[in-house]
């Protein structure tokens, strides 16, 4: 377990997941940069996020410490097969799930989970580099973790090694981020 990536899967499912990760990396190596990146396929997604920001910083000459991401959820109509070209800036990411919430593609915001559904698939998300970005107050800072267990070892930065970043996602009208923290 110390030599493997964090996972809550039993052995058979872990082996299947490991094979999918190797296939993702192999395809990337042999066919070039994918149009959308399968974020769960990375052992250290934080490094991938930093690399995406570094690429943007180099292209634009922007200091990396002024960059962060804004997020555009592409909606259900934009399944992975519908994303045909690389974005002009940033990266497309897939393979993410929401816990205790769902994405309302028609309205373009988070919505309360359907009864009996603890998790729901999040459509492809455009991680767009932004300079000095401050999310609007009508957005929820949705934490992104490597696994559903929100715990991990505290790193030298003071954050859990399981924590990746906060995704700023729009909320329904009249809803506040404080309500969603309790979800």
Intertermini distance: 31 Å
Percent helix: 10-25%
Instruction: Please state roughly what percent of the residues sit in beta strands, choosing from under 5%, 5-15%, 15-25%, 25-35%, 35-45% or over 45%.
Output: 25-35%
Largest sheet, if any?
4 strands, mixed
The average pLDDT is: 90
- Radius of gyration based on Cα positions: 17 Å
Broad structural category: alpha+beta
Task: Provide the succession of SSEs.
Answer: HEHEEEEEEEEEH
Helix count equals: 3
Shape: globular
Number of strands: 10
Strand arrangement across the biggest beta sheet: 1-3-8-2
Low-confidence stretches: none
Pfam families: Dynein_C (PF18199)
Protein name: Dynein heavy chain C-terminal domain-containing protein
GO cellular component, one term: dynein complex
Domain Dynein heavy chain C-terminal: 2-182
Structure description:
This protein is 23% helix and 27% strand. It is of the alpha+beta class and 183 residues long. The protein has a domain of 127 residues. It has a four-stranded mixed beta sheet with strand order 1-3-8-2. The relative contact order is 0.16. The protein is built from three helices and ten strands; from the N terminus they run H-E-H-E-E-E-E-E-E-E-E-E-H. GO terms for molecular function: dynein intermediate chain binding; dynein light intermediate chain binding.
């Amino acid at each position: 377990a110390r030599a493997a990536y964090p996972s809550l899967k039993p052995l058979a499912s872990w082996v299947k997941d490991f094979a999918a990760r190797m296939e993702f990396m192999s395809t990337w190596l042999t066919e070039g940069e994918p149009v959308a990146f399968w974020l769960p396929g990375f052992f250290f997604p934080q490094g991938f996020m930093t690399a995406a920001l570094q690429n943007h910083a180099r292209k634009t000459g922007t200091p990396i410490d002024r960059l962060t991401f804004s997020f555009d959820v592409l909606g259900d109509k934009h399944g992975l097969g519908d994303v045909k070209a690389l974005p002009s800036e940033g990266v497309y990411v897939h393979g993410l799930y929401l816990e205790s919430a769902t994405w309302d593609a028609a309205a373009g915001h988070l919505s309360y989970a359907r009864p009996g559904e603890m998790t729901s698939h999040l459509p492809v998300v455009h991680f767009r580099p932004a300079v000095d970005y401050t999310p609007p107050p009508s957005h929820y800072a949705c934490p992104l973790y490597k696994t559903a267990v929100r715990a991990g070892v505290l790193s030298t930065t003071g954050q859990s090694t399981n924590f990746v970043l906060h995704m700023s996602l729009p909320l329904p009208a009249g809803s506040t981020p404080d309500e969603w923290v309790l979800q």
